[in-house]
Amino acid sequence: LDTRERLDIEHRKWRGLSIAFARIEQDLGAIRARPARDTGGVVQPPLVGVQVARSLNEGQIMFSRAGYTDEKGIPGAPTRVGYRVREGILEYMTWTALDQAPRTEPVVSELFRGVSELRVRYLDMRGQWNDRWPAGSAVNVAIDDAKAIMPRALEIELQLQSGERIRRIFAPMAGGNR
User: Fold this and answer.
1) N or C: which end of the chain has fewer CB within 10 A?
2) Residue 44: C-alpha distances to residues 41, 49, 89, 144, 152 (Å)
3) Cα(72)–Cα(95) distance, rounded to whole angstroms?
4) CA-CA distance, 85 to 9, in Å (whole number)?
5) What is the pTM of this model?
């Protein structure tokens, strides 16, 4: 009985991780090279990545993606999404619009519990991995040339509280690099 219970726990853990990575893969597959305005009116690149979120309204990775399709198959307006780890939970963040009004807060939902760390790396056009995005010279690229500042690939690594490290690489990135 103890073995069966442990197997059930492991099965739920790996199923939950599969669902979380499927969500990430779906979002990255719909990424768009569309800049967005933050709540202060500042234009942000299509994809922004930091190792530590500075506020409750910020993700460790945030990007613009194509709108979700409704039940009739009609695509909605593009949206901004993000991911972060907070208090041991991998969270999924969505904003109501790409260009946000002051005091706009994301809708936050739980993807997976038991995560101690989320680490994201970004592959630039020179083939170098970076811990933040935009990185290096990409920061100086004009925001009008949004496609030029998209990474070639992303590496997402989750450190679980149980000790495992799970790493996935997502490539190629949409929004001009396909």
Assistant:
1) N
2) 9, 11, 26, 11, 19
3) 23
4) 21
5) 0.87
Q: Where are the beta strands (DSSP E) in the chain?
A: 36-37, 43-44, 47-49, 61-65, 79-86, 89-94, 107-113, 115-123, 129-130, 153-160, 165-170
From residue 124, alpha-carbon distances to 44, 78, 116, 127, 151 in Å are 18, 24, 27, 5, 5
Beta-sheet pairing, 107-113 with 89-94? antiparallel
Residue with tokens 């009739």: 72
- Rounded mean pLDDT, 32-41: 92
Contact 29, 65 (CB under 8 A): no
d(CA 173, CA 65): 12
Q: In the prediction, which pLDDT does 139 show?
A: 45
CA-based nearest residue to 120, from 67, 162, 173 = 173
pLDDT per residue as tens digits for the range 78-118? 999 999 999 999 999 999 889 998 988 999 999 999 999 99
Contact 82, 61 (CB under 8 A): yes
Residues 13 and 111: their CA atoms lie apart, in Å, by 12
Q: Could you tell me the sign of the dihedral formed by the alpha carbons of 168, 173, 177, 178, in that order?
A: positive
Quick one: pLDDT at residue 68?
84
